[in-house]
Amino acid sequence: METTCIMCPMGCALTIEEQDGVVKVRGNTCPRGEKYGVNEYVDPKRMVTTLLKVKGGGVLSVKTSEPFRKAQVSAVLQAAAKVLLDRSYKAGEVVVKDVAGSGVDLIATADLIFGEKA
Amino acid sequence: MKHFDVVIIGGGPAGMAAALGAREEGASVAILERDVRLGGILNQCIHNGFGLHYFGEELTGPEYAARFREKVLADRGVTVYLEAMVLSLTEERNVTAVSPTQGFIELSAGSIVLAMGCRERSAGAIGLMGTRPAGIYTAGMAQRLSNVGGFLVGKEAVILGSGDIGLIMARRMTSEGAKVKLVMEIMPFSSGLKRNIVQCLQDYDIPLRYSTTVTRVTGKERLTGVYIAPVDEKLQPILEKEEYVPCDTLLLSVGLIPENDLLTGMDVEMSPVTAGAVVDEYRQTSVSGIFSAGNVLHVHDLVDNVSEEAFIAGKSAAQYAAGKLSQGECVSVAAGEGVRYVLPQRVHKGEGKVRLYFRVNKVYRGKSVVVRSGDELLKRKKTMVLAPGEMQQIEIEKSLIKGDISVALEE
Question: Would you kindly state where each structural domain of chain B is located, as residue ranges?
């Protein structure tokens, strides 16, 4: 697998391969790059921020409660697209629990006053 | 006419931090904000990554804004005028504004903090050739329509410019079900963060082509496509290699311009490089009592730096209004080899530390940042990599200042 290290502005081009059960990173110039490369190969994780639709118009911004498996990002986004909110929320409140079975929740990042035009 | 010690124009991240800085000095403060809420552009930046430096944790834009907004609104020493569009500002520090709820507003101030932010370069600003159909947006406009309004601006998009807003919008549109076919960058490098290139483009298999630009657009009512071509070393398109990309949306992420129109007619010295005012370490402009901070002063890449800078401006503005801002002899700060600009452009001699912010003019590896004052070496710092998209900072002791200061890159 090839990727770019994001630990600093250097942006080293990493090549990551598995040989005899050991994950090897090439192209990094520091130990942080090696750790990043191994994580990206073995178990890459991402935070997701997106919008949920509000009944009658408008949107509410949300984020996942923590980073989760990258392979599930598209399932989470698809589940979020189907949500239609019909009440008020406070920033920090859980809006969708265990979204798409990912193990993480969607949390409001802003206040939503239902019925008030944005 | 109502009087305040400090009047702040703009209620985004800079304006809010300036207010808190001024309040630390006990000043009476007014903020004039043209939107319906405080927070500025942060309100539409729903992605995370804000606050790592300032708060030591990763927040989304609305969350970062709320941290400041709650403090500002809870402080009875700050009067906030919302939906207030400032019409004029004078060197005598009188401000006029209009708002649908309060009508005509006239304020006088002991000092002013300019915190109006910046505007995006538009299709006209880059001389985009071709027709003028619907479907051409600046990236920030598309972001606002999407994240505040809830509208998806198109289904098949091409993005010109690889600045962070363009990269973030590539991911946002993809998340909302649109197809982003291509991101182009006229330069051979991106001004966006590496993290955004990986997590907004590579994660979604969106190609990024360097040294490529849009040569013209087609479509009558709605955009139908763009012609693109690689550019030579002089950034001129190589037309023989032009190709056509059908799409219904073109997003432009081609730079930001500080919004200093209010200063027209005033004698504020401006920097041709930053398009903002020339300031000292208090962020005071050449017109005494008028301060500037945030993106209206110079375009930042991290809001954390905006907050820090604006807090200084607000605090200093309050000290000025109270007649307590010490102003002795100044030296100038200049950009040397490899450095595009340094801010502040003037520093007072005296005690304490001052942090110099600067940007390099292209990507450098293995250079040292060297600060000199007169003939004396003040600081030398070895670096791995320096990129124009990442603002750098270096701190110096004021007591060591001997003469004019320069910041340069050396081997």
Answer: 1-119+257-327, 122-254, 328-411
